[in-house]
Amino acid sequence: MKGKLSKLRTGLLAVTFAAAAVIGLNTTDASAALRKISPQTQACLGCHKSMNPALVQQWGVSRHAESGVGCYECHMANKNDKDAFQHFGFTISTIVSPLDCGKCHPKEAKEVTESHHAKAAQFVGSLDNVLGRIVEGEALFNLGCAQCHGRVIPVKNGLPIMGPWPNEGIGRVNPDGSKGNCAACHFRHSFSLKQVRKPDMCGKCHQGPDHPQIEIWELSKHGIAYKSHESEIEQTLDRAKWVLGEDYYQAPNCVTCHMGASVTGAKATHDVGARLSWTLRPPISKHKPNWEAKRAEMKKVCQACHQKVWVDAFYYQFDNLVKLYNEKFAIPANKIMKFLKSRKLIDPTPFNERIEWTYFYLWHHEGRRARHGASMMAPDWTHWHGLYEVAERFYFELIPEADKIVAEKGSRADKRAWKKFKEELFSRPEHKWFKGMPKSELRKIAEFYMKRYGQTAQ
């Protein structure tokens, strides 16, 4: 027995030195690493150093490797786990879930699990899901929607089923019942802090026509300042401690505002919604639960760079923009759609009638852009890519399309009710302009253009 153990030890040494060569360690470093790395992980390296050499290299330069946390420590499983299978004498799982990460990172795992990120797969059943999975198709859903949002991952004989797998969605529902996916941001197997703190990491999902946060940030004052000082800030990104006002000061990025610590009292968190006071995603924005406390936390970050009076004044502008969007466009538009549905002038199936696409664009694309632009101090996104397009969509598409539907399908009672609805809508001060502006205002406009361009307004 003693001879067998000695032989095994010799074999593991050979594996470790071979792995060390792959990851660029000298023999002294490899000997030190061997004392930390478990025999099970060394056995894993024996095969994977040749099968997946870059994977082993990524792990080899990670803090996990430095701390003796290897393949087996993350992938080990109990034989009764749904996703457990036997692999060369070891019981392991392909999927590493927040429950697994939480064994060493309990605070971070708890914050992630309680965050909106971990619930991202709940979009299944939403209008977004109808578009991706039904209107477009299942293959698109797997490679599009689910790769950001996540999905339920079924297993067979302990292995994930192809189609749903592979999946890197941040709200993934794992076979062990946990929700979330740490590796959506902390890429395997290097788990680089520098990588995860870069704005591109958030932009991987937060981009595009309906939630262009990365595009909005890039050309905001924050984004421009960050890029101007990126080389200086990058020198700090791989530090374990990363505190605004202490470790860096030049400019904020996504992590700074939504997750990072500051000398002004903000504590680092993995709950990305812990500082958000409005929900800017739905057709009509609402304050989040406990929003005053959440705003107070965000203000702590802001006040590392801005005076309190400035921060308060910004939030005053932001709140007014959200209320403007809600009251002038979102609530009336929502009432129009309810009017048509309640009178059965459009059927319950989503997206099979033109007006449903029009309404979706109004709140889901243009309305979100306006609200997100305002939240991140990007005036062009707030106006031209935002409320300007909301207004055009509302006055010249949604209402005319509703007019046509009522005229073609409505009963006399429907038409009377629609006429009354419109009269009440256009009698409100914010919509009165549409029925004709006062001559005095029109004269001012004409005089301005005549003076500036030598011609009347077109």
From TrEMBL:
Residues 1-20 form the signal peptide. Residues 132-283 form the Cytochrome c domain. Keywords: Heme, Iron, Metal-binding, Signal. The keyword rRNA-binding does not apply. GO terms for molecular function: electron transfer activity; heme binding; metal ion binding; oxidoreductase activity. The keyword Signal applies. Gene3D superfamilies: Hydroxylamine Oxidoreductase, Chain A, domain 1, Hydroxylamine Oxidoreductase, Chain A, domain 2. It comes from the Bacteria. Pfam families: Cytochrome_C554, Multi-haem_cyto. SUPFAM superfamilies: Multiheme cytochromes. PANTHER family: C-TYPE POLYHEME CYTOCHROME OMCC (PTHR35038:SF8), DISSIMILATORY SULFITE REDUCTASE SIRA (PTHR35038). This is Cytochrome c554/c'-like protein. It comes from Phorcysia thermohydrogeniphila.
